[in-house]
Input
Amino acid sequence: MSDTLSPVERGKYAAATRASAFVETGMKVGLGTGSTAEWLVKALGKRVRNDGLEIVGVPTSTRTAALAREEGVPISTLDEVRWLDVTIDGADEYDPSLNLIKGGGGALLQEKIVATASDRMVVIADATKKVDALGAFPLPVEVIGFGMRTTQLLIEEMLEGLDVMGNSAVPRMDGDGLFVTDEGNHILDLHLERIGNARQLALILNQIPGVVENGLFVDICDVIVTGHGDGKVEVHDINTGDHEVVHIPSAEPDNLFRDIAE
Ligand code: 5RP
Output
């Protein structure tokens, strides 16, 4: 089975496996959304089933909640738990200051609320997510349905005065209809090519009526765990400056899949 994993998928697996070691018994853990976060939930489920790990997870989407249930990871809501020890989540891009673009999977609103309610946010990513400047990945912005076309125009107009290289805001589709988020909203994907000032853009976007939240995570991520196709994993803590390199054995996906199949 491990032969079928692409280098990118191996990198995701390796990053998630290393990051699962940040989780200890007794912790309240934010569970991210996306393919990298799925590896994390599987790794935590394995520890719950086999090693008696006792945690409470707070999922950031209905998708992740369903997977956590399948994997036997106990879950709760943020309203019940209130504050988390750590959130571990993927990202679409991260820059050298560990600012992020998130929301490729459409879960940015819950992801940002959960990450902000955590002592630490650990981001897990394959090496393709590392960029010098954010913006090549279209920036997701969650908007309410009412007046969405006007919100789109206001955003495009606002972008013309900012340090970005594009200004189109494209409604995200799901088949023939608009993509609908877990909160019943929609997503506009902003094609910006390069974002000169992520902090400024994040603040201005959220002032536009109709915008619920944007996918820029500025000063939220504490640790980045980057997985490479050969199993090498780099862990960088922005607060301490610590940088660690480890190797995750490539044979492990076989065991993981076997464990899940049992
Ligand atoms: C979902 C997200 C994801 O974390 C992001 O899209 C990365 O996904 P993947 O791990 O599948 O590459 O923000 O809203």
Remarks:
- Residues 257-262 have pLDDT under 50 and may be disordered.
- The longest strand covers residues 118-126.
